[in-house]
Design a protein that fits this description.
Shape: globular
Radius of gyration: 17 Å
Oligomer: single chain
Strand content: under 5%
Structural class: mainly alpha
Largest sheet: none
Distance between the termini: 52 Å
Length: about 240
């Protein structure tokens, strides 16, 4: 096995519980998501890092020290891609949602106290953060409350991060308590979609941006998502 990518870290359940309470009170407080993930990750990221290194494409991408963020920030270039391509659909998604590629960078700032032992591991950590909204586009889940929980459920199936799993379980319990059966079904289905899909953390997303979205979904084993009714928080009402 390759050398470690990150130093071992302890689980911090009290930190996670406090952050979860804040997130429940304000579902739009994205910073708490990162706080929970850091508190409960343990060695989850190390296992993922070793898996990506064992993948030929993943090892190639990390070996090239790629940084996908500048490409995702170049919205004009993405808009110029042919209609129906992943890159153009991603740019449209950013426009519609009124967000930016660097938004997640800002939201996660100050929450990663990991001690990286290999610069490739740090690159992978940043890459996973930066492609989150790409995964929204590929899976079809929107940025509403149901869609975010579903995407986190899909992501947990892909990367097995305990912090993400904790968020999904609490969110599903809340949906059950409040009677949102559609959200429960969506999240549960998302987990199995993630299990069935190809290993997305090791994908060549730079190349996939120029491919038709339908082809990307087919090659990754992600079928079309059945329509669902989005649920928005009071602070993020449905856009008209």
């Amino acid at each position: 096995m390759s050398k470690r990518g990150v130093a071992p870290r302890s689980i911090e359940p009290l930190t996670a519980i406090r952050a979860m309470r804040r997130l429940i009170n304000d579902p739009d407080d994205t910073a708490q998501v990162f706080r929970i993930i850091r508190a409960l990750s343990g060695n989850s990221f190390e296992r993922l890092y070793q898996r990506v290194l064992a993948d030929p494409m993943g090892a190639h991408i990390l070996g090239e020290r790629r940084d996908i963020l500048p490409l995702l920030q170049d919205r004009e270039r993405l808009r110029a891609l042919p209609e129906g391509t992943l890159g153009r659909e991603y740019a449209s998604f950013l426009d519609t949602e009124e967000i930016s590629a660097e938004g997640l960078v800002d939201a996660s700032s100050g929450f990663d106290d990991s001690v990286f032992l290999d610069d490739r591991a740090e690159l992978l950590s940043h890459r996973l953060r930066d492609i989150h909204d790409l995964w929204h586009v590929v899976t079809g889940y929107k940025r509403d409350l149901f869609g975010e929980v579903a995407l986190l459920s899909f992501t947990y199936a892909q990367i097995r991060n305990h912090g993400i799993g904790f968020i999904v379980l609490i969110a599903m319990a809340k949906e059950w308590y409040e009677g949102y059966r559609e959200g429960l079904g969506l999240a549960w289905g998302a987990y199995w979609r993630g299990r069935a899909a190809g290993f997305m953390p090791a994908c060549d997303w730079e190349a996939l941006l120029e491919r038709p979205l339908a082809d990307v979904r087919r090659e990754l084993g992600i079928g079309e998502l059945a329509p669902y009714t989005p649920l928005f928080s009071a602070a993020a009402p449905a856009m008209g």
